[in-house]
Amino acid sequence: MSEESLIGVEHLYRYFGTNCAVKGVSFEVRRGEVVGFLGPNGAGKSTTMRMLTGNLAPSAGSIAVGGIDLLEHPKRAKAAIGYLPEQPPLYRELTVNEYLTYCARLNRIERGRIPGALAAARERCGLADSGSRLIGNLSKGYQQRVGIAQAIIHSPDVVVLDEPTVGLDPIQIREIRSLIRELGGEHSVILSTHILPEVQATCDRVQIIHHGELILSDTIAGLQQRMQTSRLAIGLHRPPDIEKLRAIAGVLSVEPNGADRFHISHHPAESPAETLVLAAARENWGLYELIPERRSLEDVFVDLTTSEPASKEAA
User: Which CATH number fits domain 228-296: 3.80.10, 3.30.70, 3.30.720, 1.20.58?
Assistant: First the structure.
């Protein structure tokens, strides 16, 4: 594990009876990173999160938090982790201040430092004016903020958030995403989610787990590259014979898409777009559409998670 890594996971396995839910997962999370942990339902996301936070023992493998082995020194390692499970562990009958004071004491914050820790957590989570309000009277979005506040009240190095925006409205989702980005400035954040736009909006790096195996680990910039395609969508009012399109320099294949539209695949470094425009004007093909196609993150995700587990990818 490198000096900048705050989480180091090596060859992690977890069996439930004969079912292997997590198979040989290894990765690192560096200081200041927001890492998105993606996967379809049942892929092993929550099982991995529970092992990372010490709530579930692995069947094999090791987890280090800030260089401290989680299995050998669980109290020391867990002190460096803040955790928000999918269902926030809130006490609705308490006020925000009462609950956060309770969480501060659970995290063994010295009595004299508790008021400052409460004020700092409330301020960072947009709860500065909500200290005396009952948690049960707060909106779902503000309850989620309280959940995040309890996760960061002891200023942990690592914050683990499991599906933090589930059930929120669009405005609340935007606010929580902004908060997650801010947390990445001072903490390392692991964000477990199945919401693909959330990864693009908040994360520096993405990891995809499928059938318990880590099949992709890449930066957002690397993911953007995967989303680029070497295809053009073209529409022609008076299309020529398809062989004329195939004969244009750089064109690899042409697929009809209706009577007057085509998908044209080409060499990545040799787009035939300009040649197509010139040919269409010269031959009076009636060009009305020419669009470079782009894969969505959903397309990349579906491609990876519908392939065989053996086709592992990593960067």
Answer: 3.30.70
